[in-house]
């Protein structure tokens, strides 16, 4: 069969959910000029297809939050919030095997594109799971809000950080939140119940300046070297701790990385100061018995038997804003048998894994939204 005919047949037989996913990926919500308007228009169209109300709230100039609402039978009950962020990180196109915003699907079903894992897949999986539930005539007991927020990839302070302070958010009466997680290369799915605090540190060292041809004493560089050595020695301790203990995950240790060096004006001038920037993610102490979660086990959600691993999220998500003010939030992206490629070159998600994720949410969402009043 000619290649053109094979491609046409594959496109014709593509699940509409996959088509919607690929369309969302093509909207360039990439920093620093994220096309939020394009994303909001797409999401509003999805809401119309679902026959659900859509609201757009500008929490800061140029920073919209989209909300799709599925009203429950008992709207007085605390609601279920399904959160995702619209923005994605920049790409180094020369390192990609295809255009990072083409949403190209390979013959094996791998879909390449920035945001396939982080986290446009989850947004569409929410939408498509609810589409399936509505098509079966189901209505949840609790109201469900699908929220689509901006700027998560640039700290989230002008996104979720502002949204939770708005009266519109308070009116949602949120009881439980699902947010993003990570892929799992193995058969299990990873569920994140907390995340490590972010600590960004700038260390500025000052010293004696002078000509680059001399042995000048007490320079900024000498002082900074001691600082860097100290930070990286601690980094190595934490790395070895993780490697030696099979029960630990990345979120259980503190990571330290030197991310930026600043200083100097010319090759032949010893500068008066140097600054080193470190990205530190602090581990937390959690008694697993208190929160009642096993490190590794099987969990039945609805009728879905899933092997899960529970961890502390190693990076930062919008959940930190919600948890900080008392809301329960779980990080979960249904992507098993998938390498972790968020922010990496050639980010992809396989078509079958994506569709399986919709089925998983089709079970999880009503299981949470129909929890009776306590």
Topology:
Elements lengths: L2 H10 L3 H11 L9 H15 L3 E7 L2 E8 L8 E7 L18 E2 L4 E3 L7 H16 L8 E6 L10 H4 L3 H5 L2 E6 L9 E7 L2 E9 L3 E2 L8 H25 L10 E9 L5 E2 L2 E9 L6 H4 L4 E6 L2 E10 L5 H6 L4 E4 L15 E3 H19 L5
Parallel strand pairs: 3-6, 3-7, 7-16, 8-15
Antiparallel strand pairs: 1-2, 2-6, 4-5, 5-17, 8-16, 9-13, 10-12, 11-13, 14-15
Helix pairs in contact: 2-4, 4-10
Textual characterization of the structure:
The chain folds into two domains: 3-195 and 286-369, Zn peptidases (Aminopeptidase, 3-Layer(aba) Sandwich), CATH 3.40.630; 198-281, 2-Layer Sandwich (Alpha-Beta Plaits). Helix content is 31%, strand content 27%. The protein contains ten helices and 17 strands. The chain has a nine-stranded mixed sheet.
Features:
disordered N terminus; 374 residues; Aminopeptidase; 9-stranded mixed sheet; 3-stranded antiparallel sheet; 31% helix; alpha+beta; elongated; 10 helices; single chain
Q: What separation lies between the terminal Cα atoms?
A: 60 Å
Q: Which structural class matches the secondary elements?
A: alpha+beta
Number of domains: 2
Strand content: 25-35%
Overall form: elongated
CATH names the topology of the largest domain as: Aminopeptidase
Biggest β-sheet, characterized? 9 strands, mixed
Q: In oligomeric terms, what are we looking at?
A: single chain
Total number of helical segments? 10
Order of helices and strands: HHHEEEEEHEHHEEEEHEEEHEEHEEH
Poorly predicted ranges: 1-9, 286-302
As laid out across the biggest beta sheet, the strand order is 1-2-6-3-7-16-8-15-14
Share of residues in helices: 25-40%
State the total count of DSSP E strands. 17
- If classified by CATH, what would the architecture of the largest domain be? 3-Layer(aba) Sandwich
What's the level 1 CATH class of the largest domain?
Alpha Beta
Radius of gyration: 23 Å
What's the overall average pLDDT, rounded? 90
The CATH superfamily name of the largest domain is Zn peptidases
């Amino acid at each position: 069969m000619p290649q053109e005919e094979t491609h046409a047949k594959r496109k014709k037989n593509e699940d509409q959910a996959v088509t919607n996913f690929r369309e969302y990926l093509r909207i360039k919500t990439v920093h620093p000029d994220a096309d939020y308007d394009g994303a909001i228009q797409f999401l509003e169209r999805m809401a119309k297809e679902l026959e659900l109300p859509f609201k757009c709230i500008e929490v800061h100039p140029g920073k919209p939050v989209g909300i799709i609402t599925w009203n429950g039978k008992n709207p007085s009950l605390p609601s279920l919030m399904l959160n995702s962020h619209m923005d994605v990180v920049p790409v180094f196109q020369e390192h990609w095997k295809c255009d990072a915003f083409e949403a190209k699907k390979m013959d094996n079903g791998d879909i390449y594109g920035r945001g396939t894992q982080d986290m446009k897949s989850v947004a569409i999986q929410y939408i498509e799971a609810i589409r399936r539930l509505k098509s079966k005539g189901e209505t949840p007991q609790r109201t469900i809000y699908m929220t689509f927020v901006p700027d998560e990839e640039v700290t989230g302070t002008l996104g979720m950080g502002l949204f939770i302070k708005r009266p519109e958010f308070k009116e949602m009466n949120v009881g439980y939140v699902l947010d993003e997680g990570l892929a799992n290369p193995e058969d299990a799915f990873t569920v994140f119940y907390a995340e490590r605090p972010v600590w960004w540190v700038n260390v500025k060292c000052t010293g004696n300046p002078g000509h680059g041809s001399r042995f000048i004493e007490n320079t900024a560089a000498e002082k900074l070297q001691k600082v860097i050595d100290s930070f990286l020695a601690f980094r190595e301790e934490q790395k070895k701790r993780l490697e030696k203990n099979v029960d630990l995950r990345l979120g259980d240790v503190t990571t330290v990385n030197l991310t930026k060096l600043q200083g100097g004006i010319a090759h032949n001038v010893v500068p008066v100061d140097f600054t080193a920037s470190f990205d530190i993610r602090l581990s937390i102490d959690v008694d697993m018995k208190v929160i009642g979660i096993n490190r590794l086990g099987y969990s039945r959600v609805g009728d879905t038997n899933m092997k899960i691993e529970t961890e502390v999220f190693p990076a930062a998500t919008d959940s930190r804003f919600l948890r900080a003010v008392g809301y329960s939030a779980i990080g979960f992206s249904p992507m098993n048998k998938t390498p972790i490629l968020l922010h990496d070159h050639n980010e992809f998600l396989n078509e079958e894994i994506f569709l399986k994720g919709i089925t998983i949410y089709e079970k999880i969402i009503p299981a949470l939204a129909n929890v009776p009043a306590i």
